[in-house]
Amino acid sequence: MDIIEQVSLKPYNTFGVASIAQYFTEIESRKDIDELITWHQQHDLRYLLVGGGSNLLFKNDYQGLVAHIRLKGKAVIATDSDANYVRAGAGENWHEFVRWTIDQGMAGLENLSLIPGTVGAAPIQNIGAYGIELVDRLHLVEAVDLETGKSREFDVAECQLGYRDSYFKSVGLGRYLITAVTFRLPHKPEWKVAYAGVKDELEGKALSSRLISDTIIAIRQSKLPDPVVIGNAGSFFKNPVMSESAWQVLKAKYVDLPGYPQDNQRVKTSAAWLIDQCGWKGKKQGSAGVYDKHALVLVNYGGATGADLWAVAESVIRSVEDKFALTLEPEPRVI
Ligand SMILES: Cc1cc2nc3c(=O)[nH]c(=O)nc-3n(C[C@H](O)[C@H](O)[C@H](O)COP(=O)(O)OP(=O)(O)OC[C@H]3O[C@@H](n4cnc5c(N)ncnc54)[C@H](O)[C@@H]3O)c2cc1C
After folding, report:
1. How many whole angstroms separate alpha carbon 15 and alpha carbon 303?
2. Pocket lining: 180 vs ligand 1, CB cutoff 6 Å
């Protein structure tokens, strides 16, 4: 494991923020993981695991070691009468992996096409899009406990996957390095195409995983900024979930307030709608701002620092609190 000093993190975060890592290394093998653990025991410094950096905001330079996960490999490891079990290394690019499963004739991940980042980070926030979440296709997660050096497996229940949340993002934050993920992809396709927008595009067409994937790619490209062109981390805020009664009170005041019923008599509303009502869509503060086509996306228009982006985030949170008495929570990890 080679350690380099003073490395720019600009290529390692999709906001394109030019923070500097005090130390930087690449994790490509189990040997590298063991050396990372030893390094951590010998140095009184924190470390941060980074995949594609598409769910991170660096507010400042990073004092410590940034470990970029590059564990590779993908294969069908088992088949039973119902499903294929497909395992991928944590450093595999998520979208390339999804397309590879489609090329192999397997269905199940098509709705999650074009989500940036790596396979290993996908369970961290239980990635979701267009009516599917990782939890719907996950079989197990392999990880190394960075405190003990021991490998262990997490079944689906142990991952505690929720809305943009998991054991790894909450109680277990920073403790486990995910090395590989195995997915269960049923032989009989369970296509989900009822989501608004997708349904209209596919009306009357012969369904296939490739067609659904291509359709979702086109929809995403029309709505979300490409991080290569405009720095961003996708949705910056989680959609607030509240009790049905609290939602009814707000709805009485704001008749257009969206509401999506959840389990346990809770209702999710749209953070994008709340932000839009506060007039933030398309607003800029210097080089940072809110994307003009999507109020949930904070963008780096060029040269914004992490602090600039965080200042916009805080202003948005304050506006929504003042108007609706709701506190928005960031979806990415803010460092
Ligand atoms: C344009 C755009 C669109 C997006 N759309 C969606 C969407 O539709 N749905 C959605 O859910 N998300 C979306 N995202 C967010 C993001 O793509 C996902 O959260 C993705 O899974 C992050 O992967 P990453 O490899 O970039 O993780 P990173 O940003 O590198 O890391 C995220 C977190 O995971 C940890 N981590 C990374 N790798 C490992 C590992 N191997 N072991 C342990 N911890 C690890 C990091 O320490 C950090 O806490 C979008 C982002 C962008 C830029």
Report:
1. 10
2. no
Ligand 1 nearest atom to the CA of residue 118, by list position: 25
Whether residue 125 is found in the same domain as residue 243: no
Does the CB atom of residue 16 touch ligand 1 within 6 A? no
| Model pLDDT for residues 172-207, shown as the tens digit of each residue | 999 999 999 999 999 999 999 999 889 999 999 999
38 pLDDT tier (thresholds 50, 70, 90): very high
Q: Is the pLDDT assigned to residue 229 strictly greater than 90?
A: yes
- Of 49, 58, 109, 132, the residue with max ligand 1 atoms within 8 A of its CB, to mutate for a pocket test, comes to 49
Note the pLDDT of residue 269.
97
Give the domain-ending residue among 25, 44, 69: 69
In contact, 99 and 110? CB cutoff 8 Å: no
Residue 23 has what pLDDT? 97
Whether 115 lines ligand 1, by a CB cut-off of 6 Å, is yes
Do 162 and 115 lie in one domain? The reply is yes
Mutate which of 10, 14, 27, 55 for ligand 1 pocket (most atoms within 8 A of beta carbon): 55
Say which residues have a Cβ less than 8 Å from residue 291's Cβ, sequence separation at least 6.
225, 230, 232, 281, 282, 297, 298, 299
Using a 6 Å cutoff on CB, does residue 114 contact ligand 1? Answer: no
User: Is 140 within 8 Å of 152 (Cβ atoms)?
Assistant: no
Pair (170, 303) in one structural domain: no
Q: What is the pLDDT of residues 11-26, one digit of tens each?
A: 999 999 999 999 999 9
